[in-house]
Amino acid sequence: MNNEKYILIDKLAETNELSREEWMILLDGAGEDEELLKYAASKARAVADQVYGKEVFIRGIVEFSNICNKNCYYCGLRAGNSKLTRYRLTEEDILACCEDGYKYGFRTFVLQSGEDPYYTDDVICDLVRRLKKDYPECAVTLSIGEKSYEQYKAYREAGADRYLLRHETANEEHYGKLHPENMSWSNRMRCLKDLKSLGYQTGCGVMIGSPEQTVECLVDDMMFMQEFKPEMIGLGPFLPHSDTPFRDKDKGSYEMTLFLISLCRLMLPNALIPATTALGTIRPNGREQGILAGANVIMPNLSPLTVRDKYMLYDNKICTGDTSNECRGCIERRMESIGYKVAITRGDYKMCNGVRPHCT
Ligand code: SAH
Ligand code: SF4
User: Fold this and answer.
1) CB neighbour list of residue 145: distance below 8 Å, 6 or more residues apart
2) 3-state class (DSSP) for residue 268
3) Burial of 165 from C-beta contacts in 10 A (0-12 / 13-18 / 19+)
4) C-beta of residue 142 within 8 angstroms of C-beta of residue 111
5) pLDDT 10s digit of each residue in the chain, 360 long?
6) What ligand is nearest to the CA atom of residue 299?
7) 3-class DSSP state for residue 213?
8) Which of 91, 93, 2, 84 is nearest to 40 (CA)?
9) Is the dihedral of CA 107, 327, 129, 348 positive or negative?
10) Cα 328 to chain centroid, rounded
11) Cβ of 286 less than 6 Å from ligand 1
12) Is 24 helix (H, G, I), strand (E, B) or coil?
């Protein structure tokens, strides 16, 4: 048993923060220590139960376009992937997906896409306004990439509540190994700061085990999130896609992904943390294990069946053959099997009550 690591987990649970040196000790070689992972998971789950109870929030995600003008090396939607059949949903298609979603109990709609200039700011704002008008009690989350402050401001004024933009890596040098030269780490970080300053519940996150990710990179990620205090944190294993430059790279570690979920929960007790689709892809019961490790959100797909298999960020993505209704039922059963219940609610970030150290 590696005592030092256990002591650091206890310290994290008590104070919600660690120093750079402590993160280094905790993360280095942690993935192989099964007992340690279990220890972190049980502590993290207890914190999640304390903050959010036995409820899991669901978000209906509409993947409305797989057209992207960016070329991230890891992603199947990258502009350079000429093998992919591209699609765009119309505004009416998107609204119809949300209408279905509402019937199935979703009270948050997540609109996600590649960076597709076809959807102008006017289109996005109109869509957000219509959704907020038709479903005033629902939250709208956007995940449409890097934009200017003014653009984010316009979406916010149209009514968007939340925004997901994974930082991918808090290490600038590492960022340069995952993206082509015309993409910049500082712009990604600028976007996140703008989003937060505009009052969005803001989500950042990383792929665990992305090519050339080192323990130092993960330490940088934890240090960044400790300071930034995102309301949402998306963590999933990196999974290779066969039509990208990273086709032959190793996938990320399932165990390490669960461990980082637990550590994020202990660091930011109130965070909204999804058990991601990538986690369910790497392991059949990965999402259940994600919840048991401290996650509290699941994001089933609301996209039309006809386009599901075309939004392929990585190979073998799950749930491409199921209708929205089937996905909804499946999630309900999966959560019940581990003693949790799907909540029919917006599922907002719970503001700190001032009791926890990180609230001060
Ligand atoms: N275009 C938007 C949203 C779509 S991509 C954006 O980039 O922000 C959503 C997320 O999918 C990315 O942030 C990335 O972390 C994840 N992703 C992309 N390719 C992946 C892969 N091969 N394995 C695991 N996750 C991947
Ligand atoms: Fe485009 Fe997002 Fe994929 Fe990058 S991660 S290629 S921005 S869809």
Assistant:
1) 70, 113, 114, 115, 165
2) coil
3) buried
4) yes
5) 569 999 999 999 999 999 999 999 999 999 889 999 999 999 999 999 999 999 999 999 999 999 999 999 999 999 999 999 999 999 999 999 999 999 999 999 999 999 999 999 999 999 999 999 999 999 999 999 999 999 999 999 999 999 999 999 999 999 999 999 999 999 999 999 999 999 999 999 999 999 999 999 999 999 999 999 999 999 999 999 999 999 999 999 999 999 999 999 999 999 999 999 999 999 999 999 999 999 999 999 999 999 999 999 999 999 999 899 999 999 999 999 999 999 999 999 998 766 565 554
6) 1
7) coil
8) 2
9) positive
10) 19
11) no
12) helix
Nearest listed ligand to the Cα of residue 119? 1
Pocket residues for ligand 2 (CB within 6 Å)?
A: 68, 70, 72, 75, 77-78, 114-115, 145
Residue that the structure tokens 């290490």 belong to: 171
What is the spatial distance between Cα 129 and Cα 246, in angstroms, rounded to a whole number? 39
Residue type for position 103: K
Residue 130 tokens read as 């219509």
- Between the CA of 45 and the centroid of ligand 2 the distance, in Å, is 31
Q: What angle do CA 208, 214, 215 make, to 5 degrees?
A: 85
Question: Residue 354 has what pLDDT?
Answer: 61
Going from the Cα of 36 to the center of ligand 2, the distance in angstroms, rounded, reads 34
Residue nearest to atom 2 of ligand 1 (CA): 145
d(CA 216, CA 230): 20
**CB 145 within 8 Å of CB 167:** no
| Nearest-angstrom CA–CA distance, 112 and 220 | 27
Pick the atom of ligand 1 nearest to 143's CA: 3
Which ligand sits closest to the CA of 84? 2
* Ligand 2 site-directed mutation target among 61, 70, 169, most atoms within 8 Å of CB: 70
Instruction: State the chain's maximal CA–CA distance in angstroms.
Output: 57
